[in-house]
Amino acid sequence: MVSLNPNLNCTGVFTHFATSEDMQNKSYFHQQLASFHTFLNVIPNRTNKIIHCANSGATLYHPEKPFFNMVRLGKALMGPPNEGLKHLLPMQLQNTLSLHSILDLVKQLNPGDKVGYVGEYTATQHQWIGTIPMGYADGWHQQFKATSVLVDGERVPIIGRISMDQLMVALPRKYPTGTRVTFIGQQDNEIILADEIAQKASQPRSEVFTSLSSRLPRIYRQDGSIVSIKNTMLNP
């Protein structure tokens, strides 16, 4: 219909695979690819058009397939699309995104003290907690409250409800304010990957990345050196 309409000019055609990372059952992937080939056969003058179908999974896990004249590397730009399939990759990919904050308040709770909205967490003993200026408005949603963060190379749990602009964590000891907190990334021998967060939140890994709000400053590094900083809160 597009080719018959004089008001429309078709410059390209694409499709998207639903199961490109399912290496146990490739039948639907092959079915989709065959259907796309059939569709292309009815398009006139397609030699000069941009044709693409391969997302990250298809590009990396099916490199033997001809994928026309373009591929779409989306989540693969952030690292291995699927940690469980890392051994099948035709090249080594590194995780390129990390997420950090700081402890901006550290205090000691008494037994019976409550934390967060509706007092969801109740201290059963004297304990240290830390407040981190990161909340669901920044992209760290309620679904992530079952995850941990890294403080001083140790995993510490999120406690209570995640608020709009902050969340609380249980600390094993007192730390100074300004101590670095890692949500995604590595401290010493401990590492938290986005795949782990996605699994605990029952979400695709890509949703963890795309949830990160523009309120968060972006620091771009190359060869270990900072090359650019973008902060839309200070410079919209």
What are the SSEs and their pairings?
Elements: E1 12-14, H1 27-40, E2 50-54, H2 56-61, E3 70-71, E4 99-102, E5 105-109, E6 114-115, E7 121-122, E8 127-132, E9 148-151, E10 154-159, E11 167-171, E12 180-187, E13 190-192, H3 194-201, H4 205-211, E14 218-222, E15 225-230
Pfam families: Ala_racemase_C, Ala_racemase_N
Keywords: Isomerase, Pyridoxal phosphate
Cofactor: pyridoxal 5'-phosphate
Describe the structure.
With 236 residues, this protein is of the alpha+beta class. The chain has two domains: 12-88, no CATH class; 99-230, Lyase, Ornithine Decarboxylase, Chain A, domain 1, CATH 2.40.37. It has helices at 27-40, 56-61, 194-201, 205-211, and strands spanning 12-14, 50-54, 70-71, 99-102, 105-109, 114-115, 121-122, 127-132, 148-151, 154-159, 167-171, 180-187, 190-192, 218-222, 225-230. The strands form four sheets. Strands 4, 5, 8, 9, 10, 11, 12 and 13 form an eight-stranded antiparallel sheet that branches. It has a three-stranded parallel sheet with strand order 1-2-3. Helix 3 (194-201) crosses helix 4. The longest helix is centred in the first third of the chain and has 14 residues, at 27-40. The radius of gyration is 23 Å and the shape is elongated. InterPro entries: Ala_racemase (IPR000821), Ala_racemase/Decarboxylase_C (IPR009006), Ala_racemase_C (IPR011079), Ala_racemase_N (IPR001608), PLP-binding_barrel (IPR029066). One of its GO terms (biological process) is D-alanine biosynthetic process. Pfam families: Ala_racemase_C, Ala_racemase_N.
